[in-house]
């Protein structure tokens, strides 16, 4: 086993970086979805949702940067083209969504996909003794689970 400068197995960090790049691609699509529904939302819930969507896309933008920086910390290169993102993404694409329920459902569906990826990374980072990635995924998961609960509550549904 070869260790890198931060004391992690180089083979395992390469695998983690690949998984983080998949997460990065999905977060970029999620971010674009949020921008689109922020711009296009209509109806009686406009004022509340417009602000909420801005809050969510601002947070997603910060997470994109954190993920990319973690990939760099692990010694890899973050994906950075839309072509790469669309090839790797599993998050649904939301196009021309202006109706409140559809917008919130898109967020729930997107976060559900992100949570699957993050849980997989959490397992991999645990096996690699990578506390930095592990802590980041744990924080993301906790926050996004709460957002899913709130969005489902807004829809009148349970988790």
UniProtKB/TrEMBL annotation:
<dbReference type="GO" id="GO:0016722">
    <property type="term" value="F:oxidoreductase activity, acting on metal ions"/>
</dbReference>
<dbReference type="InterPro" id="IPR023188">
    <property type="entry name" value="DPS_DNA-bd_CS"/>
</dbReference>
<dbReference type="GO" id="GO:0008199">
    <property type="term" value="F:ferric iron binding"/>
</dbReference>
<dbReference type="Pfam" id="PF00210">
    <property type="entry name" value="Ferritin"/>
</dbReference>
<dbReference type="InterPro" id="IPR008331">
    <property type="entry name" value="Ferritin_DPS_dom"/>
</dbReference>
<feature type="domain" description="Ferritin/DPS">
    <location>
        <begin position="18"/>
        <end position="157"/>
    </location>
</feature>
<dbReference type="InterPro" id="IPR009078">
    <property type="entry name" value="Ferritin-like_SF"/>
</dbReference>
<dbReference type="InterPro" id="IPR002177">
    <property type="entry name" value="DPS_DNA-bd"/>
</dbReference>
<comment type="similarity">
    <text>Belongs to the Dps family.</text>
</comment>
<dbReference type="InterPro" id="IPR012347">
    <property type="entry name" value="Ferritin-like"/>
</dbReference>
<protein>
    <submittedName>
        <fullName>DNA starvation/stationary phase protection protein</fullName>
    </submittedName>
</protein>
């Amino acid at each position: 086993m070869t260790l890198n400068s931060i004391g992690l197995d180089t083979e395992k960090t390469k695998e983690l970086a690949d998984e983080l790049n998949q997460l990065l691609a999905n977060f970029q699509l999620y971010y674009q979805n949020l921008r689109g529904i922020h711009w296009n939302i209509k109806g009686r819930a406009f004022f509340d949702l417009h602000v909420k969507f801005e809050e969510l896309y601002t947070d997603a933008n910060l997470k994109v940067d954190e993920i990319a920086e973690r990939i760099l910390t692990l010694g890899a290169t973050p994906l950075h083209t839309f072509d790469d993102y669309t090839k790797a993404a599993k998050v649904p694409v939301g196009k021309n969504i202006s109706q409140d329920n559809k917008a919130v459902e898109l967020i729930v569906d997107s976060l559900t996909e992100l949570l699957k990826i993050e849980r997989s990374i959490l397992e991999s980072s645990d096996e690699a003794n990578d506390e930095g990635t592990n802590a980041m995924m744990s924080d993301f998961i906790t926050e996004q689970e709460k957002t899913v609960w709130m969005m489902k509550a807004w829809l009148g549904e349970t988790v």
